[in-house]
Specification:
The structure is a homodimer of 205-residue chains. Chain A contains ten helices and no strands. Chain A is mainly alpha-helical and 205 residues long. In chain A, helix 5 crosses helix 6, helix 8 crosses helix 9 and helix 9 packs antiparallel against helix 10. Chains A and B meet through helix 7, helix 8, helix 9 and helix 10 of A and helix 7, helix 8, helix 9 and helix 10 of B.
């Protein structure tokens, strides 16, 4: 019903401007972070976005190209989030990680823990995805890990890259469980033990 | 070609015996651990298993029921694996965990790291799955965690349940990355830091 009302407010033929493209990406991210790639059809994205099929194919030659753009948009959004939290020099490095984790939890709570991480979803689904997604997904994880390793280096841990890989491996597992259980508990349980580990390994705070 | 040869060896109408059911479950596990639920069709499972559609619907009213049976079969198989490794009293508790991890790695290597964990795959896909899968997937994770918590209790760690949840959260993330990267490295990197954590927290070995 809500969708119906929203769509009625729009002109029947959306102009081919950047706002249609932006809307398709926003709606695509919503559906794919909830349900992954394979179970989401282009038609339901068009319907939800209130954008005609022609506009979609104007911007994206195929669902596969659309998915790639979603990966890039999600990566840019998330990198920005990480850099904002990790670059907040008014906080200690540990507090900066905590502030990212709290933000991520609030983001999941806002959508009742129905949306997970696009990169985690696609990583898990990779066996059924276009093969060119693989390198892209690996690259995104690596980028997030590099940003995190720089933070851990400030804590003077032994091997910041290895610990950043460990964090992202576990964090993606925690997001999966939070979405599965519709609860913040898996995020908090993971974070609690990870902070203890960080405290043991870091010589700074 | 290989499939073709295998199918030619079977009678055109497979009898409705337990071996057809067993074959469907075996082939289903292969496809779903590779590609998840949504992107796998019943038809390709029938083709690969060399079992006619009628036999499938004799055993499973729907794809959704088939998926539930796969979850149960995978859980039984995996519980047995955990109990075998963790119950091997000739090894120390830490060595028993290592023996499970090595077995899991060998299992992934055997299929060139193309197959992941069915429960992790389905957990990630849950937003697009039949809703009755949710409780089942949560239950399976809890069972594996309980078996693991009993092992950690032998190491006299502070909160074995929390540490077992942490292990499974991270391990599922590691399996996801190993499948994504077609490599054992994510499993080993995760295990290495986890063993250090275990050593710090446990007063026994």
């Amino acid at each position: 019903m809500e969708q119906e009302t929203r769509r009625r407010g729009r002109p029947p033929k959306a102009p081919r401007d950047q706002s249609s493209k932006h809307m398709l990406i926003r709606v695509g991210l919503k559906h794919l972070t909830e349900r992954g790639y394979a179970s989401v059809g282009i038609d339901e994205i068009l319907k939800d976005a209130g954008v005609p099929k022609g506009s979609f194919y104007h911007y994206f030659p195929s669902k596969s190209d659309f998915g790639l753009e979603l990966i890039r948009a999600y990566d840019a959004y998330f990198r920005d989030k990480l850099e904002t939290h990790f670059g907040n020099m008014t906080l200690s490095p540990t507090e900066r990680l905590r502030s990212f984790i709290q933000d991520a939890e609030a983001g999941m709570a806002k959508h009742s823990f129905r949306r997970g991480c696009l990169i985690g979803n696609l990583g898990q689904e990779m066996g059924g995805l276009p093969e060119n997604y693989r390198a892209e997904i690996i690259r995104v994880f690596q980028t997030w890990q590099d940003i995190t390793a720089a933070l851990f280096a400030e804590l003077k841990v032994d091997d910041p890259e290895a610990l950043a890989a460990f964090f992202w491996t576990g964090w993606e597992g925690a997001v999966l469980r939070a979405k599965l259980e519709h609860s913040a508990k898996p995020l908090n349980s993971f974070a609690e033990i990870f902070f203890q580990l960080l405290q043991q390994r870091g010589t700074a705070r």
